[in-house]
Design brief:
The structure is a homodimer. With about 210 residues, chain A is an alpha/beta fold. Chain A folds into two domains: about 15-140, Response regulator (Rossmann fold); about 155-210, Orthogonal Bundle (Arc Repressor Mutant, subunit A). Chain A has nine helices and five strands. Chain A has a five-stranded parallel beta sheet with strand order 2-1-3-4-5, sandwiched between helices. In chain A, α6 (about 155-165) packs across α8 and α7 packs across α8. The longest helix of chain A is centred in the middle third of the chain and has 34 residues, at about 120-155. The relative contact order of chain A is 0.12. The interface between A and B is medium-sized, with 26 and 27 residues. The structure holds a DNA duplex (30 and 30 nucleotides).
Chain lengths: ~210, ~210
DNA sequence: GATAAAATCAACATTTTTCCCGAAACGGGG
DNA sequence: CCCCGTTTCGGGAAAAATGTTGATTTTATC
């Protein structure tokens, strides 16, 4: 039996946090106070650089990000995180209404884009939506990571067999395509099932498909 | 054998068109001229109501939609189409920069949101992206519609069996759950495969999953 | 060159699926 | 009342997948 516990990435499960990045001290403190007084765990940073220094890829929650900052801008930080496959939802905060900027940010995957000044209710509503969305996506991402990890454990041959199985080929056809005997295909197939942690073809296909091909 | 040709919805395959809805005659004509001179098939309307009167659910291409219009607004038209499951990508055009409006539109699924004045190149680029995106989604939507149609043809019992098959149950287990004999399960299962238009379990699962469950 | 991982194949038994045939009960609609 | 779709069940046989045990060859790595 192959021992792949369950999670490829074992992260100490901490609760969701709200990350705030804003160079304006007053603005940042006000936001932190608002969120903390409503029970959220908040971590504030006065620059994109400070956030990055603390970021380790395991931040869970959402990020409230000021667009205009000295040094690295909010948009740059957003792009930086995106390139590193961060799943942290980002809510942009800006003082100067700029439609093209908002459009670009949202089309690139920002969770929201809000103008200052905003009401406390509005911000709380947005944060709550954002965190809820993050919770939803988390399980899915965990499964995807697990599946990707399991897929990576397959040998080249096993992966070839898997692809043909998913394509709906019979063992006989797979044997023909790969130029090997049916017996060998059965061996590979059994190993694939084992390594992927499934017992039925239905789960196998579901698992591989839901991880994106 | 069950005869379900291929498409649940048979629509006369017309090429993509660019639909323009704008109450400003000069603006609309200018846009139509720009697009037609670049080889696009354009259909223009001077109001949301006029567009709706012509809309039959089979419009293929994309929609350039002015936000502010007398009578039904662009946003209202957008909502109207969304409620009717229109897949027509919508590009909003507005004269007055309004970040919250842009954010709302994009979050509700608008393809883009552009401010006037815009350059010809920008508009052409956006239209081209939009049409490309629409082409990509079309095949998928067609398959989804076909699968939905086939699923709808299943009897209640057949659907129950299908669900259990997808859950990875063996015929014996399905028979137990439904309290019927294995033989009967085999019959249902064969009918399901036939009606769904597949020959292997792999294709069956792929088909049902890609239609969203 | 030894070791380990990967890939290859086989005999054997069992389970499961698929496909052919046929058939009976039930309910509704023409 | 008969036809049709639905659901139900069986025999029989072929095809396919699964599981166990064991073995050989190749390939990569130390």
């Amino acid at each position: 039996m192959s021992e792949v516990p369950s999670g490829a990435v074992q992260e100490a499960e901490v609760g969701q946090q709200v990350f705030v990045v804003d160079d304006d001290d007053a603005q940042r403190d006000s936001l932190v106070w608002l969120l903390e007084s409503h029970g959220y765990a908040v971590r504030a940073f006065s620059s994109a650089e400070a956030f990055l220094a603390a970021w380790n890829g395991n931040f869970v929650g959402c990020l409230l990000l000021d667009v205009r900052m000295p040094g690295m801008s909010g948009l740059e930080l957003f792009g930086w995180l995106a390139r590193r496959n961060s799943a942290l939802p980002v809510v942009f905060i800006t003082g100067h209404g700029d439609v093209p900027m908002a459009v670009e940010a949202l089309r690139k995957g920002a969770a929201n884009f809000i103008e200052k000044p905003f009401s406390a209710e509005e911000m709380l509503r947005i944060v709550e939506n954002c965190l809820a969305q993050e919770r939803e996506g988390r399980t899915q991402r965990r499964n995807q990571a697990d599946t990707a990890h399991r897929l990576a454990q397959l040998t080249v041959r096993e992966r070839e067999v898997l692809d043909l199985v998913i394509a709906g080929k019979l063992n006989k056809q797979i044997a023909d395509v790969l130029g090997i005997s049916i017996k060998t295909v059965e061996v590979h197939r059994a190993r694939v099932m084992d390594k992927m942690g499934v017992t039925t073809m239905a789960s196998l296909i579901r698992r591989v498909m839901s991880a994106g091909l």
